[in-house]
Amino acid sequence: MTASFMDLVDVTIVNIAMPSIQKDIGASFSILQWITEGYALAFAAGLITGGRLGDIYGRRRIFLLGMSGFTLASMLCGTAGDPHLLVAARVFQGATAALMVPQVLAIVHATFPAHERGKVFGMFGAVVGLGAVSGPILGALLTQWNLFGLEWRPIFLVNLPVGIAGLLLGRRYISESRAPKALKLDLVGVLLASGGLLMLLYPLTQGRELGWPLWGYLCMAGSAVVFAAFVAYERYKARKDGSPLVELSLFRVKSFAAGVGVEIAFGVACGIFFLIWTLYMQIGLGWSPLRAGLTGIPFSLAVSVAAGLSVQKLVPRFGRKVLQAGALAMAAGVLLYIWEAGHYGTGIKPWQMAAPLIVMGLGMGLVVAPLTEAVLSEVPREHSGSASGLINTTQQLGNAVGLGLVSVVFFNALDAKALAAGRTGEAFATAFRHGMWWVAGVLGVVLALMFALPRRSAGAAAE
Predict the structure, then answer these.
(1) Considering the domain 1-185 in this protein, what is its CATH number?
(2) Whole-prediction pTM value?
(3) Between 380 and 141, whose confidence is greater?
(4) Residue 265: in which H helix or E strand, if any?
(5) What SS3 class is residue 176?
(6) Would you give the DSSP letter of residue 336?
(7) Residue 452 has pLDDT above 80, yes or no
(8) Per-residue model confidence (pLDDT) at position 463
(9) Chain centre distance of CA 411
């Protein structure tokens, strides 16, 4: 539970501190992207491998190794004096999270008998909700308080006592477990997938600042070749020893293939929104971290309420329509936000943002809670583990791609003349509206793909 909480808080806490990081160590806009994108990319690339390492070498051992690395990486992030060192430490942090996080539910599954797991998963859900809600507020308070003159650094350093406590408790209370028959590692697959993603995302993120050079376009085109090589190798690996990184046969299940598309597109929309929203409030409108963090509370509460209702009450009765209603509600909230940002301009108040944020939050809650079950409902039981790992990975990949696109959909739309004339608020408000139109478009893709999901999940049909 401690590990899951640290990971969730670390994902959400950083966005609030972005402007403070930019001022303190002179980070460029592309560096700000890499601070979040580097973590998401390393986390996504290592998730499946991290799970397999736990199956092979022991979940307790890999969990403690991951938590040790995560705690060390947090210290490196908190003491970094150079923007590039901070990005490197964040990549290391994402890689160690990929060792730690996949073990959490595997340890629960191995430790508790079936009749007790329901209570544990209930606690897990509560911790997930608490992490998502408290991350922005904790980040805002730690940045605003400027403890010991450390500016933004406490957002990372706060992980040190938590991580050390988790290590001590983990060594004492977690029992070791392994999979009876674990799949082999596919390090070549990891390298090909990671290389292809880096070839796609690096030019996307850096291209604007470098003037969109020719090598950037060639690199992005080359990523398609690397992904094709990845698919070919995965087919070979499946024939050779039956343990590819990605089980390609899963994509023959129409609902799963469409569901992976939904996960990626939804991750892209979230990756774009959360970063440009923070930059708009703090740099564009000049709000303090605390004011920006508190503005997001209606959104977080709406997500929590809708998530609980969707799983317990709505999905068993209405099935796929609940997810589609969620995507529509999110899109409606985005369009309302675009109108408000244009109507009120730089004089917009937090309470005026509450309406679109509540609508967006309700929509997100209706989607995120039941989506995984809907995607997995028609997958053969023997492949459920591989499918779950792939879903978690694609969520993170979508987020990383969304963060990479911020340079195109937001920073590219910043009016250089307005910035030079000191009209920062006007420039950022215009770019925010431009980016939000992209979010609305991606949510349209999400809605279209949802028509390929099963009308009812297997659990709801049985009930």
Answers:
(1) 1.20.1250.20
(2) 0.87
(3) 141
(4) helix 254-279
(5) coil
(6) H
(7) yes
(8) 42
(9) 20
